[in-house]
Design a protein that fits this description.
Elements: E1 2-7, E2 10-12, E3 18-26, E4 30-39, E5 46-51, E6 57-59, E7 67-72, E8 77-82, E9 91-100, E10 104-108, E11 112-116
Length: 118
C-alpha cells in the first residue's frame, strides 16, 4: 500500500512564502514523476508543477518564477517552495506521484490548504 502525505500548508499574507512537502511511503519499488496540483473552490484541479525522476521540471504559466519544485529521491519526497504568494493562489494543494508498487499507478495525497489573505 502506498501513501502520500502533504504538509506545510497554512495561512499567509500576500507576498509571503510557504514550503509544501510531500512524502511517499509504503511498498514502493520506484517513483517516476511527482508533482503538485491545486484546486480552488468552484474550479477544476490544475497542475502547478511537475518533476521527473531525472529532474526535468515543468511549471504552469501562472507560476511565473514564483514557485520552485524539487525532490529528494532518497527520501521519496517532493517539495514546493512558494514565494510572492497572491490571493488567487488560495486553494487546496495536492501531491501526485507516478509510483511502481505491486503495479504502476498514480497516487494522490489528501491535500493541504493554502490561504493567502490580508
Amino acid at each position: 500500500q502506498v501513501q502520500l502525505v502533504e504538509s506545510g500548508g497554512g495561512s499567509v499574507q500576500p507576498g509571503g512564502s510557504l514550503r509544501l512537502s510531500c512524502v511517499a511511503s509504503g511498498s514502493i519499488e520506484r517513483i517516476y514523476g511527482m508533482g503538485w496540483y491545486r484546486q480552488a473552490p468552484g474550479k477544476q484541479r490544475e497542475l502547478v508543477a511537475g518533476i521527473t525522476s531525472g529532474g526535468r521540471i515543468n511549471y504552469a504559466a501562472f507560476v511565473k518564477g514564483r514557485f520552485t519544485i524539487s525532490r529528494d529521491n532518497a527520501k521519496n519526497t517532493v517539495y514546493l517552495q512558494m514565494n510572492s504568494l497572491k490571493p488567487e493562489d488560495t486553494a487546496v494543494y495536492y501531491c501526485n506521484a507516478d509510483i511502481l508498487s505491486s503495479t504502476r499507478g498514480g497516487y494522490w495525497g489528501q491535500g493541504t490548504q493554502v490561504t493567502v489573505s490580508s
